[in-house]
Amino acid sequence: MGKERRTGSGPADLAAPEIAGAELSGAELAAAGLTAGLRAGYDAAADHWAEGPGLMYAPLATALVAAAPVPLAGAVVLDLGAGVGVAGRAALAAGARRVAGADLSEGMLRRGRGGSPVVADAIALPFRDHSFDLVVAAFCLNHLSCLEAGLAEARRVGAAIAASMFAPGWTHPAKDAVDDAARSFGYRPPAWHTVLAPGSRASDPEVLAGQAAAAGFTGVRAQVTDVPAGLASPAELAAWRLGMAHFAPFMRSLDAPGRAAVRRAAEQAVAAVAGTSPLVVSIVVLTAG
Ligand SMILES: C[S@@+](CC[C@H](N)C(=O)[O-])C[C@H]1O[C@@H](n2cnc3c(N)ncnc32)[C@H](O)[C@@H]1O
Q1: How many angstroms separate the most distant Cα atoms in the chain?
Q2: By CB neighbour count within 10 A (0-12 exposed, 13-18 middle, 19+ buried), where does 188 fall?
Q3: Bridge pairing between strands 280-288 and 221-228
Q4: Is the entire prediction scored with pTM above 0.85?
Q5: What SS3 class is residue 53?
Q6: What is the dihedral of CA 82, 112, 266, 263, to 10 degrees?
Q7: How far is the CA of 82 from the centre of ligand 1 (A)?
């Protein structure tokens, strides 16, 4: 595990040569490559996260924190997979005494404000047992190749958890529209994203609840809820998609006119399919003590 906890950015692919080591099994090597690709994607996405995906993730984080299973007043909170820290800020606004943010991506943490950011992998956290009253994990656990390991680690460091992921089957027409538009410019999804395909990143509430109970949590609830995320215009929806970590390295590889051309094509594609209703995201909220 320690071998995977590097802070340098690696190649955005499963075959991550500098991570390869004779002492690693094939599965460990694949997991290490996945971690490195993911980290590189989020590092690349960080600069423009707030004006793209961040517009969607902020209201989702607020909804998650509002569902916390313990009082936030005076609580010491871990924002796990903090990104730019929207869930931690929502916890502070709700009265939390202190928030630490942990994330694989140093780039995302650097874009956050306040808190105590720590570059760390959710499956090997650098905190003592029982350090936190609450672990908030907004769309972090759905990135793990081993969800059980993430839940066990959250259980070790925290007294309670509030975690979110996308509901099984939830999608939006802007996703395919932007994918297709970007592909026509040469975009290909990175291997880590293909491995964490949408189906495997969503969690069936019952399965998730069972895994949380197996990790030692009690009072487990996992419920699907719809959260209005506000985005409605083709420009906002295209910026959400193109700002995601699996697109970011591709967008950065283009010059300014190239990026503008992809954006235009993505907005046109979204306008053709998405209608004008504001985005509503169906999420699973896991809470437990
Ligand atoms: C979709 S973003 C969500 C960020 C933030 N929680 C929010 O709601 O805006 C997922 C975040 O999880 C982080 N992440 C993914 N896998 C991780 C892991 N194994 N350990 C820690 N952070 C991880 C990513 O770097 C990224 O910042």
Answers
A1: 54
A2: exposed
A3: antiparallel
A4: yes
A5: helix
A6: -160
A7: 6
Ligand 1 probe mutation, 56, 57, 103, 192, most atoms within 8 A of CB: 103
Tokens (6 digits) for 59: 């209201």
d(CA 221, CA 205) in angstroms, rounded, equals 8
Separation CA 219–CA 162 (nearest Å): 12
Question: How far is 229 from 173, CA to CA, in rounded Å?
Answer: 15
Sheet hosting strand 116-119, strand order edge to edge:
116-119, 98-103, 76-80, 134-138, 161-166, 280-288, 221-228
List, for residues 137-191, the tens digit of each pLDDT value. Answer: 999 999 998 899 999 999 999 999 999 999 998 999 999 999 999 999 999 999 8
Query: Which residue's CA is the closest to the ligand 1 atom numbered 4?
Result: 83
Structural domain spans, the chain: 39-171+190-230+281-288
Rounded CA-CA distance 282/236 in Å is: 18
253 phi, psi to nearest 5 deg:
-75, -10
Atom from ligand 1 closest to the CA of residue 64: 8
Burial classification of residue 257, based on how many CB atoms lie within 10 Å of its CB (0-12 exposed, 13-18 middle, 19 or more buried): exposed
Measured distance CA(123)–CA(175) in Å, rounded: 29
Sign of CA dihedral 144, 146, 148, 152: negative
CA 234 to chain centre: 23
pLDDT tens, residue by residue, 142-151? 999 889 999 9
According to DSSP, the β-strands at 280-288 and 161-166 are: antiparallel
Q: The domain 39-171+190-230+281-288: what is its CATH number?
A: 3.40.50.150
What pLDDT is recorded for position 276? 75
Best CA proximity match to 253, nearest among 30, 8, 33, 40: 40
- What is residue 224's DSSP assignment? E
